[in-house]
Every structure is written in structure tokens, then in C-alpha cells.
Design brief:
The chain is α/β, with parallel strands linked by helices. Helix 6 runs parallel beside helix 8 and helix 8 packs across helix 9. Helix 4 links the parallel strand 2 and strand 3.
């Protein structure tokens, strides 16, 4: 099975050996593995902010050579058949419909991402709504502890920082449950460790991050 590439911040890690698959993204990865044998011209991948949708798009683009062109006129001139549109729900409905039709007429495919499934989008154009509802839709969930912990370890390693398991455990109970939250926490700890000439430990993490990023999972944990 192909694996999800993660943008791991300090040094981009785009090689296949850096791809990670977890229960939260396995279904979406499976659908992209099937490309170009999709049952419809479009596939919609949806999930909450920070769940890895954009990273999944980049992984698919590397394999498919998909364009990210959002201008229908330029797309038609370039005769693009494979297209990736991140945050498609924020686009002009007319542009999105035109892009969809250009790709469909060329017997191509378009990958769309959004926070919610198309059934929950406020789409006013009937033709666009019918096309979106006919497209397969697959969810990505928030990263679980195993995936988020692996991301934290990789982020620290990319910055040539060695941390103990107790630091990872502490962070997992407190940071925002997203890849963006992990990147922010590691960047702040890296800067503090460099400025203070101290290793990254739980006491340093407590000083730098405090309890401001605490999640419900951290109740009663010190």
C-alpha cells in the first residue's frame, strides 16, 4: 500500500520512505492508490483542519503529476487532465464547475479537499451540486496518538534533536491534535533549547508551552 507523505517542517521529507499510514488516513490513501481507476471524474477527501489533507494531496501530486491550476481559462489552454484542488469548498462555484467539466470532458480526474463532505457544502448551482454528490467522498480523521507521536519524533529528528519518550508522551497530552500543532510545538522547543543551551526535556517543555495548549486529554496529568 502507498503511504501518506507528511510535510515534516524543518527539512521537507517527501521521499517514499517518509510516508506514514494510520487508521485515520488509511481509507483516503486506499482511494488514491486506486487512481486512475476511480468510478467518477472526481474524488473528495474531507477532514478537520490539520488532519493531513494537504499532505495527502502533495503525495498524490508527486505520483500523478496533477496540476493545481484554479483558473479555468488557463487550465483549458494547458489541456490538463489531472487536477488537485485544495480547499475546493472556498472556490467560486462557477469556476469549480467549469474546472470539473474541463477535466471530465478530457476523461481526466480531479481531487478535491475540504473540511466537510460535499453534502454539507452550501452549493447553489444545481449542476455543480449534482456532480459533487455523485463523486466518491472519503474522510480523514484527526491523527491518533501513534501517528502524532511518530510525527513528533520525526520533527525532532529533522532538527537533529534527541528527546526521550517522556517528552513525546507529555506533548501528546497537551498539544493541538494536528500536524500543525506538532510543528509549532517542536519549532518553539527547538528555538528555546538553542537559546538556553538546554536539552529538550519535560521541564523545558513545561516552561515553553506551559498548560496553554492543554487538551481535554491532559486533565489530571502533570
Amino acid at each position: 500500500m502507498a503511504q501518506l507523505v507528511l510535510d515534516l517542517g524543518h527539512r521537507p521529507a517527501l521521499g517514499r520512505e517518509h510516508f506514514l499510514v494510520a487508521p485515520s488516513n488509511e481509507a483516503a490513501v486506499g482511494w488514491l492508490d486506486r487512481w486512475p481507476d476511480w468510478p467518477a471524474p472526481a474524488l473528495v477527501v474531507h477532514g478537520p483542519p490539520g488532519c493531513g489533507k494537504s499532505h495527502l494531496v502533495e503525495a498524490w501530486r508527486a505520483r500523478s503529476g496533477a496540476s493545481v491550476e484554479r483558473d479555468p481559462a488557463r487550465l483549458g489552454e494547458a489541456r490538463v487532465r489531472v487536477l488537485a484542488l485544495d480547499d475546493a469548498d472556498r472556490m467560486s462555484e462557477r469556476d469549480l464547475l467549469h474546472l470539473y467539466n474541463i477535466v471530465a470532458e478530457a476523461r481526466g480526474q480531479v481531487l478535491l479537499t475540504a473540511p466537510r463532505p460535499p453534502a454539507l457544502w452550501e452549493v447553489r448551482l444545481p449542476d455543480l451540486r449534482s456532480r459533487l454528490l455523485a463523486a466518491p467522498s472519503v474522510a480523514i480523521g484527526a491523527p491518533d496518538d501513534a501517528l502524532l507521536g511518530a510525527v513528533l519524533v520525526k520533527l525532532f529528528a529533522d532538527r537533529q534533536l534527541q528527546v526521550g519518550a517522556e517528552v513525546i508522551d507529555w506533548l501528546l497530552r497537551r498539544i493541538e491534535r494536528s500536524f500543525a500543532g506538532a510543528r509549532d510545538a517542536v519549532a518553539r522547543l527547538d528555538a528555546a533549547a538553542l537559546a538556553l543551551k538546554r536539552p529538550v526535556t519535560v521541564p523545558l517543555a513545561r516552561e515553553v508551552l506551559g498548560e496553554a495548549q492543554s487538551t481535554p486529554n491532559s486533565a489530571g496529568v502533570t
